[in-house]
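Researcher: I've got a protein sequence and the SMILES for fe (ii) ion. Could you write out the 3D structure of the bound complex as structure tokens? I'd like something to compare against our soaking experiments later this week.
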Amino acid sequence: MRERIAADLARARERSRLLTDAVDDHDLVRQHSKLMSPLVWDLAHVGNQEELWLVRDVGGREPVRADIDELYDAFKHARADRPQLPLLGPAEARRYVGEVRTKVLDVLDRVPLEGRRLVENGFAFGMVVQHEQQHDETMLATHQLRVGAPVLDAPPPPPGGPVGPDEVLVPGGPFTMGTSTEAWALDNERPAHQAVTDPFFIDTTPVTNGAYLEFVADGGYDDPRWWSEAGWAHVRKAGLVAPRFWERQGDRWYRTAFGVTAPLDPRQPVVHVCFHEAAAYAKWAGKRLPTEVEWEKAARFDPATGRSRRYPWGDEEPTERHANLGQRHLSPAPVGAYPAGASPLGVHQLIGDVWEWTSSDFHGYTGFEVFPYAEYSQVFFGPEYKVLRGGSFGSDQAAVRATFRNWDYPIRRQIFAGFRCARDAKREELT
Ligand SMILES: [Fe+2]
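Model: Sure. Here is the predicted complex with fe (ii) ion in place.
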């Protein structure tokens, strides 16, 4: 276990380094969007959380830099205000995170991984790994918002392939949702409990750029019939006409990703749409968004055994054959690119590619217990956040699984979010 933790910590740091070394000091300290922190804030914040949990709490050691805790407390300063803070500069931030990591590796060598819930199965280390990877995904989103010559590079995703029918029927009845056994699952994924659905259809793949373009071309953004009241108010006020980073030149559409503008790939899942856009498309298509319960059932339920799997393909950890994860590529992969990652019912690309908006508000499951602190998820419970599932091409495998829950405001578009549709099964479709 210690080896796995050390490898996961190293992989996260390798990625943080790549994302911060890719740009110069000026780009590290400036704010690329009001929605985001300066990259140098994310870097030192990652180190500060690691220090708080692993050096001080788990390790019981003296603080490395108690004086900066307040600066890097995400609850104390809004992202828009962070550039004005007396932050550590790039060189200082790099030195700080390195010093913390050296101490953490020493703690990892010495501390017993049992006897206290926080360290059982390496939980606190897993939490810190996931935290760094989540900030790496946030930093990747900052890169997407950055204006300038491209600085990131990665091979293109694998080609698409056949996916079978457009939608599959998920049988009604109970299944096990959430987990009580996944070692690094966060408090909001717990506990395992029984959830029940009616039979429903879910799209075999996320909605593609090509399908979404039909909605745009059909005047979807100008037609209040497809939008909720809040969605229509937002689309008007914000002046939305297409997904973020799309641009029309003549009669062709282009998409800009990480500084590179290219013709829209009609087979790739649409990305950078907000919840309201996803819900409007679904209504236009005669469907709806899946609930969070439906999404998890489609992702985990194996009708042959009645069991819920860790991932759509089974219980094995993701590999590059299963899913587009870990910033291995800089875009979602065309549909059908991961046949080995399909669920038993034949649903593709549930994990990786794009986060998928669901219709559900973010709440604790029945039996929810805060662990290890309320600010992890409990303070976000409520109707203002919608749940997203499945992770994106920018999510690391340590920070996503079929039980993993993400949440954001329904107007957010800078995250790597798309969606798939679902619909109720009609009685005559069940025989
Ligand atoms: Fe954080």
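Model: The longest strand covers residues 355-362. The radius of gyration is 21 Å.
Researcher: Great, I'll pass this along to the crystallography team.
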